[in-house]
Write the structure tokens for this entry.
Amino acid sequence: MLQTAVPLPSPAAVPSLPVAPAPAPDTAAKITASGLDFYYGPRRVLEQITLQMRRNEVTALIGPSGCGKSTFLRTLNRMNDIVPGARVEGSVVLDGRDIYAAAVDVVDLRRRVGMVFQKSNPFPKSIFDNVAYGLRINRMTRSREDLEGRVEASLRSAALWDEVKDRLHTSALALSGGQQQRLCIARALAVEPEVLLMDEPASALDPIATQRIEELIYQLKSRYTIVIVTHNMQQAARVSDVTAFFWLGRLVETGLTTKIFTAPAQKLTEDYITGRFG
Amino acid sequence: MTGMISTGGRKVMSSLFVALCTLSVLIALVPLAFVLFFVISEGVQALNFDFFTKMPKPVGETGGGMANAIVGTLMVTGLGSMFAIPIGIMSGVYMSEYAGTRFASLVRFAADTLNGVPSIVIGVFVYGIAVLPFKQFSALAGGLALGVMMIPIIARTTEELLLLVPGTMREGALALGATHARAVFSVVLPAALPGIVTGVVLALARIAGETAPLLFTAFSNRYFTTSLRQPIGTLTVMVFTYAISPYKDWHRQAWAGALVLVSIVLLCSLLARFATRKIEGLHSN
Amino acid sequence: MGRVGKKRSIDLGFRLGTGAFALVLVVIVCAIGFELTRQSMLSIEKFGFDFWRTEVWDPVAGQFGALPFIWGTLYSSLLALAIATPIALGIAVFISELCPNWLRQPLVFLTELLAAIPSIVYGLWGIFVLVPAVRAFETSMPSALRQLPMFSGPPLGVGMLAAGVILAIMVIPFTSSVAREVLKSVPAAQREGAYALGATRFEAIRAAVYFARTGIIGAVMLGFGRALGETMAVTMVIGNNPKISASLFAPQYTMAAVLANEFTEADTELYLNALIEIGLVLFVITLVVNSLSRLLIWSMARPARQDAAAVVVPAAESAA
């Protein structure tokens, strides 16, 4: 008659809930810099930068000239590696892996993290060859048709296709400044990057060309993680979701763009945004 | 009042100085005009179709040409560029891509040194390494001597032109995932290529006019040959031999040779100038 | 990981590959020094320093003293320098400071053409045009002047004067183009500073030239290096006589010329070694002269950009 009693769990036996990892991992974070220091020779130009850049968002880096925002941008695809005497401490994690780890292939990293420069830098080749360049060197296409398809897709993504489709094989140097910059964006998009770094992409352009680039950034954010350096407050306010304010090599404040521009927490940020200095 | 006078004196001094500078330009242009005038007037009289197609006549007979020497000059300069162009361009790439390194400075120093070595000394050097061991003057030795002279010119030209290519282009390629080598060979070097070609053409023109390094490497030969292992006649050495000879008809042919040499130089310089203009136009875009 | 390794090795391979080509340049320079020394051992051992002190050059007797060649080389090069320097600097100043814009490019082209004409063409012109002209000049000189040691000897035409003139013509474009580069690197603030103090054009240019003085000395030395090693044209007009003389009219000989004339005639080992030793010394001298001049030009071009303002005061003083 002994019933095999279903043993009731004693309260003591109840397994304690797993301890939650201190800060919950932000699954939306694509690139995270933590405790990043950057040196040119003995000079420290970035100090303890910690910043998360999230998927499908535009993160704007603002601050006065020489504040380190461009340098920071260039640590994200290790472009600073080619500068003699440059040294990085701390970590930059892309999809859970430190990009400064020894085993990382810089060349592959730069394919995944595309970059658009302040001054458009088309190669002295045809429009087509410019866009195809990255596809070719990374051997990303199977056939001529595939290559042509991708070039077209990239040019469309960069909103340039309609303007150049009839002269794909003419020199890229004959394009206007704004077109050249969009070509450089197309070129960067062609290699299917996951992150797009933009270093003052519109600073050398006229207002109309600038507007087109901004519209483009807005469209691209649904597919990429975008980090943009800009000098132009209004531009940061218009295009970005998150804004990070740099000052003298430090990250002073970061937060939602709407908040940074309406109610910054720091006096310094407010002074800069309202144009009291810089 | 004294101030006025001294200002006047200073102004006179200034005008005098300007006049002297202008004069020195004219003084320098006089020999150029004279050389060109004589080369053209004497050369045109002497130059005929035979000069390019006929072989030299035996000593004492008039007529004949320098066909063998023209072929010889082409061969020796061709051989020289075959040595020099790859070495020169690659060293130029090294010097510009690794500009800050110690080894690059050493190479730059070596290039400048080599550029300053008298051409006759290059001849002696090549005699020691390429003639003496085989007991034979040869076209190959002549080509080697000219190659050694070309290398530093091409290397330095390449270096300078590569440094002119905007760094943003190199960065652009790297940012797309190109390796360093790839960035250089597919973007930077092609961007500088027109200039490098111009530099090579100028180097060729200069080297084709060299005599001293050929005197005891390629030596001379009055007969037609295309053998690499035989002594070979060249325009410059032939002009030298004819110029110091006692024969009137040889003097005539020496002037013809000089006209051909000067035409080559002039043509190359004009070509290079034209090309440089085009390149500058491209870069300013 | 394999892919990483491959790409890394491409970049290392690129560095080593281009580096290997670059190494060739260094090797050639070392090989020249080594080879010339090795090939002249016989002469170095036999004559030692006497080679450079004695003036008997008699291949038949096996006597080799190189002093006449050194004398002739230095004499002709210094003479060329004396003629060429003022003219070359005048041209450099004219082109970089005075000349109207439209004239600049054509003038640069013409001076470059002067440099591009082959030595052998100058030599040919020297034999048939310059030497007769020099002879006429020598003959027409009043006999009172001809008593001076500088102008002694028969008026042959060939000789030191003709060599000096032709060398000067060949050196002018080199010196002027380097001097022009050096003047270009003088900051505009230098001239403006002088003008602002009320300087005339001459005084402002003098300030700029003063600022650029080291570089200009370098340019002159670079021309000297060229003159030392110049072969064909000199060989054809200097007279090729191994006799030391102070006279501008006397036929003499240079190191490069003796190599050009006698190298293929050297019938004994010792003769050949003696000639190669001359080549070795020519190599060393030009190396030293060129390195020094480049050092000067370089030291000038460098700090010029940094402390442009700091030098205004001494420059203005020198103009006063």
